[in-house]
Amino acid sequence: THQWRGIIEEYRDRLPVSADSPVVTLREGGTPLVPAQVLSERTGCEVHLKVEGANPTGSFKDRGMTMAITRAKEEGAKAVICASTGNTSASAAAYAVRAGMVSAVLVPRGKIALGKMGQALVHGAKILQVDGNFDDCLTLARSLSDNYPVALVNSVNPVRIEGQKTAAFEIVDMLGDAPDIHVLPVGNAGNITAYWKGYREYAADGVATHTPRMWGFQASGSAPIVRGEVVKDPSTIATAIRIGNPASWQHALAARDESGGVIDEVTDREILRAYRLLAAQEGVFVEPASAASVAGLLKAAEQGRVDPGQRIVCTVTGNGLKDPDWAVAGAPQPVTVPVDAATAAERLGLA
Ligand code: F0G
Q: Would you tell me how many other CB atoms lie within 10 Å of the CB of residue 149?
């Protein structure tokens, strides 16, 4: 009887739904805010991880998708469409099933993690692999939703942002106030837009005394906002944020400037280092894109740009199981042993 009810029921008065809205939910949200001991020691700050990989389909997208699919159903849509680097498509496919709708997803060919593809497939999405990048997929999805009877559920749909802002509410509700800094990875820039909206709303209503500085990190090979220009052929191992022309670019700049924050970049090497640190030292397995937030925090700390004593939240956006290739790559092969305790003990260094 005390189960978390999903973000729409938990935050109904702060979301654009009515009493008659046909709520489509997998009980998303209510994700762990985990104190990060090693990161706190390294930065001299109080660092927490908002573990969004604990959502029903394994990423933060579910917060926006419960809103987008609820709205689509309310408006009588029979089909939904999205462009995706993987997580949005997994989420759209699952929520469409709950709503009894058909989902269509457009993904960049060869550039989405296997786990995410598996999710879209098993939930019965109609998948097109587009010969192009995410930005091309989004252009195509917009054009199809403009011209055919299919609702667009990308974060350019404003109700997606409404749903995703609830992560900021949860953080303030847990900590008792807003953190000093909020760090997150930036791809299409919907999520940084959403958090900033959530924090502003809570501050405006006096639930929080202040808003945090927003720190966003792009992957170096896909850093249009940092460069100030569209990246035609974005590249990074963090396929989730392999985006060269973010739809919410201007909103991301607003979040940065209004909050006194920064949008910077991290290299793939820095991302992988943070990815391994999170798994090996904090016990939190995330997908590579998610580690961009932590990589950015560590980089800033090493450059002396993080004053000690602050309260910092890093969002880690997606579950590590979605893209396990990077966990396996470069790791030593497990040793094979016979069914023999003495040998096993010896190989484990116990004897
Ligand atoms: N982290 C993960 C795991 C993501 O899947 C995404 C975006 C981001 C970070 C960046 O968030 O786009 O709001 O700035 N994934 C989208 C997708 C593009 O299609 O799943 P953003």
A: 10
Q: What is the pTM of this model?
A: 0.97
CB 127, CB 137: distance < 8 Å: no
The DSSP output letter for 59 is B
Gap from CA of 36 to ligand 1 centroid (Å): 22
Distance 244 CA to ligand 1 centre (A): 13
Q: Name which residue sits closest to atom 12 of ligand 1, judged by CA.
A: 188
- Ligand 1 pocket: which of 89, 188, 248, 284 to mutate (most atoms <8 Å of CB)? 188
Q: What is the ipTM of this complex?
A: 0.99
Q: How many angstroms separate the CA atoms of 136 and 245, rounded? A: 10
Span from the CA of 101 to the centroid of ligand 1 (angstroms): 23
- Got the DSSP string for 87-136? HHHHHHHHHHHHHT-EEEEEEETT-S-HHHHHHHHHTT-EEEEESS-HHH
Instruction: Determine if residue 181 is left, alpha or beta; phi over 0 gives left, psi from -120 to 50 gives alpha, anything else beta.
Output: beta
Closest among 197, 194, 180, 196 to 310, alpha carbons compared? 180
Per-residue tokens: 31: 């994700």
**d(C-alpha 72, C-alpha 101), whole Å:** 9
Q: What is the pLDDT of residues 149-181, one digit of tens each?
A: 999 999 999 999 999 999 999 999 999 999 999
The number of angstroms, rounded, from the C-alpha of 54 to the middle of its chain's C-alpha atoms is 11
